[in-house]
Amino acid sequence: MPVINFIEFDGTEYSVDVAEGVSLMQGALDNMVDGIVAECGGCCVCCTCHCMIDPAWQETAGSANAEESELLDMLDSREDGSRLSCQVKVTPAMEGMVVRLPESQY
Ligand code: FES
User: Fold this and answer.
1) Which of 19, 20, 21, 64 is most buried by a 10 A CB count?
2) Angle at CA of residue 15, ends 13 and 18, nearest 5°
3) Which CATH topology does 3-105 take?
């Protein structure tokens, strides 16, 4: 099971096991990681699961599709590496991936 490293806006770090095929959003919720709200439950309509993939891992995580990118455009906090965590499914290649969480979701 890949280990994903979540970092809250205040620097608090969590290293959690997330099963392959599970979204980063679900992995964070299942492991009590603060900073993911996920109001829509992963339906890609709410933008409250925003996360920022560390630059070293952006290629591995892939890029947002058009629908996700439109939602990300509504966020003031969008930056390079921004993704909706419900749309990123964990793969073995993500072992050790670093994911930061925005202050706006606390
Ligand atoms: S949980 Fe709502 S967009 Fe990801």
Assistant:
1) 64
2) 135
3) Ubiquitin-like (UB roll) (3.10.20)
